[in-house]
Amino acid sequence: QGVFINPALVEPFGLTLIEAASYGLPIVATKNGGPVDILKALNNGLLVDPHDHEAIADALLKLLTDKSLWHECRKNGLKNIRNFSWREHCKTYLSHIEHCRNNYPTTTQYSDRHRQLDDVTTCPEEPPTSESLEEDIELKFSIDVDVMTGELDAVTRQQKIVEILSRKSPSAGEKSKGGSSYSPGRRKWLCVIAVDGHETLPAIIEKIARAAAAAAGGSNSTRIGFVLMTGLNLQETKDVLSDSQLKAEDFDALVCCSGSEIHYPWRDVEMDEDYESHIQFRWPGENVKSIITRLAETTIELSHCRPRCYSYLIRSENKAQMVEDLRVKLRMRGIRCKLVCSNAGTRLNVIPVSASRSQALRYLSVRWGIELTRSVLFLGERGDTDHKDLIIGLHRTVIIKKVSETMAVNGNEACEEDDGGGTVAKSSSRVSFVEGFEEFQELFKILGCF
């Protein structure tokens, strides 16, 4: 019988403690650092103050003289050591992935694919641990399973997983005719309009829609879906659309309140509750609603506020400095949120830290199974303070010349063409500049949207 001791002043982790437990040795370890968590998981020893020599001696004598305690610690160590095995780590990791997957919206075709993956990746329960990990040292870390059990071996399982993941989704024509005749998930391309010049927005929407229809020739118009992104709330967005020939129902989605809400007009303008719960993470809610007016020169606009977007009228002349100071003050108070200046720099939208228009685009891409590379995002030369965030990404970005919201917030510079006079922006090779109706139509054809 023996005891393993690690009296380090501070132990970052304590791998030797795990190795000792695998051989059935009770342990005495420092109470500073990783051993605290290890003994909590293994329950096979005592923690001591490394500066207290008497406490160390007492702990050692207690384990060596109390045989029942020694055997209990040995038994617990051999039993619980599996918590630190590679297989257990994988189980924990995959359980978190499964939890996220169950709370993440998917289309039917992706749900079927997930079920197929479950059938392939499910492994049988582990056999009980032997008396000592010295005898069972490999812990069956691999996913190899005895062929006699009828389970797939590692090579076959890997081939099945690759086959399922690389399997193409069924086309719209291959799907059941009994399903819905219209679903955004069947779109091949997404046309995302995020122009913030609200006075010119109706005309821009009509111009883009006409260009898409002309490029499609009428036969393939359903291949491309339209999404409108704005800093306005839903009612304001509908009011803006009332000045154009397009209705809210002509859009697959309306992303409102600077990306804190997603509505689907074809589903009676229903809000996406999955997205709502996703951005809810660390949202301070009412705690931030009243504190903003005390920390900055703002006036709350109750008629424009939403559950996850509080709108304020900016009264400060130096808007950029006010927003930056407010951001610092909120961080100092431990309040996590995002500040977006919109409506020509006169309105401040306070939204959850996980919400944004760019995040909403990625969310829709995953939900509908449309790659970001098959999304075209239209912007003005200037816009809300999240304007630059929309340019970055795998999607195609189109900057519409001579269209910009007059911003009073410094630092929101207009996009520029390259020195060579081409149509590529300095910030990214995936950014283009267009101006007239003919250029819109030609752009859709070049991208191969139809």
TrEMBL record:
Alphabetized UniProt keyword annotations: Glycosyltransferase, Transferase
UniProt cross-references to SUPFAM superfamilies, sorted A to Z: HAD-like (SSF56784), UDP-Glycosyltransferase/glycogen phosphorylase (SSF53756)
Single Gene Ontology MF annotation: sucrose-phosphate synthase activity
Alphabetical list of Gene3D superfamilies matching this protein: Glycogen Phosphorylase B
UniProt xrefs under InterPro entries: Glyco_trans_1, HAD-like_sf, SPP-like_dom, SPS, SPS_C
Catalytically driven reaction(s): beta-D-fructose 6-phosphate + UDP-alpha-D-glucose = sucrose 6(F)-phosphate + UDP + H(+)
Domain Sucrose phosphatase-like: start-end pairs: 220-408
Record-annotated Glycosyl transferase family domain positions: 3-78
Annotated coiled-coil segments of the chain: none
Enzyme Commission number, as recorded: 2.4.1.14
Similarity comment: Belongs to the glycosyltransferase 1 family.
Record PANTHER family: SUCROSE-PHOSPHATE SYNTHASE 3-RELATED, SUCROSE-PHOSPHATE SYNTHASE 4
Identification of the protein by name: sucrose-phosphate synthase
UniProt organism field: Genlisea aurea
